[in-house]
Amino acid sequence: MKEFSSKRFGIASAAAITALLSGAAVLQAQSASPLSSPSPLYREVIDETGRTVRVPQPVNRIVSLAPSLTETLYALGLQDHLVGDTVYCDYPADAQKKAKVGDTINPSLEQIAVLHPDLVIVTKGLNHLETVQGLDNLGISSYATDPHNVSEIASSTKKLADVLGAPEAGVTVAAEMEHHLAELQQHLASSSPKRVLFIVWHQPLISVGKHTFIADALRLAGAVSIVDSEQDWPHMSLEEVARLQPDYLVFSPSHSDAAGLTVDTLATLPGWNIVDAVTNRHFAVISDAVNRPAPRIVSAIEDLARQLHPDVFVERPEKLDERNPKEKPEKEKDKNEKAAPAPVPPPSRLSLLSFGPQCQTAILGGCACAR
Fold first, then answer.
1. pTM for this one?
2. Which of 114, 125, 194, 255 gets the most CB atoms within 10 Å of its CB?
């Protein structure tokens, strides 16, 4: 009996040791398996400068380093994910309530890091490469945009939305931009373009080159810049402006230099009286939206088109009730009189692409427009 018990104890002990060793082996295998401590999920994308960027998934916390990008986030309905932006990000008004990380040229990397962003969005036309490199050194991913015309602003918006996990919103916003622009072009089809000078600064006189998105916005508004320059922000002389004689001068009040400029004050400045547009009081003042490559630029294009081509946007008069002849003027009672053709109705105002009042932004020491 003792021998049987001893054998049973030995067998049980061996089984226990075997089970213990097997469990240890399993635990060791599990600890070595990558499934036991899953690493963060990333998505590799190529931004608009050609950089390969690892974007954490999902993107819940975003820092914007450009006013145009902040506006775009609001247009896409992603403002709740915006945890920080720059001191120049003032549109819409709610953007002013976001945590500020400094200016666009030299933002504070320390303040950005404190916000723990999943992604920082930048734009090549305004932000510096040193900022992107500094973010890389901190292990913070950044995605850059680089639109050069209005069509690219729409496609850039769509790409950014996809990177941020909201592709449907990007498609919707881009489609609405394209719809309003197509409708505007239909109204302007029979109008000759107005020759304009877009004034960025007047002392010294700075305009826009032919490859800028502002020059493209002028074209879509039924205008053509008199400046044929490869430079983005060329300096002009009054003599050259007088030689070219633009039909209209176009301003955006967002630039501090032009904020208080009127036809009367400009006419008193030395030399400007030789420009016919000054003596003829041919001015157009549009919102700062024209300076920012964001969806709201469409509203500025429409506004400029209305000022340059007011005859195209004559409101359709209310139709009189044909069943009540008493409401008709006497001359309309003549059945043989032909009805005048109805004027073209104006395009509908933007809804999704407009958020509030104009903002006043001036980027000094950087690029001439508040991108």
1. 0.74
2. 255
205-206/201-202 β-pairing: antiparallel
Encode pLDDT of 155-209 as tens digits: 999 999 999 999 999 999 999 999 999 999 999 999 999 999 999 988 889 999 9
Q: Is there a common fold for 42-146 and 193-308?
A: yes
Q: Which DSSP symbol is given to 285?
A: E
Q: Which CATH architecture has domain 42-146?
A: 3-Layer(aba) Sandwich (3.40)
pLDDT at 40: 63
Classify 63 as helix, strand or coil.
Answer: strand
| CA 351 – CA 302 distance, rounded (Å) | 13
Least reliable range by pLDDT among 12-21, 51-60, 96-105, 145-154:
12-21
- What's the distance, Cα to Cα, between the start and end of the chain in Å? 94
Beta bridge pairs of residue 99: 84
Dihedral class, residue 61 (left if φ above 0, else alpha if ψ from -120 to 50, else beta): beta
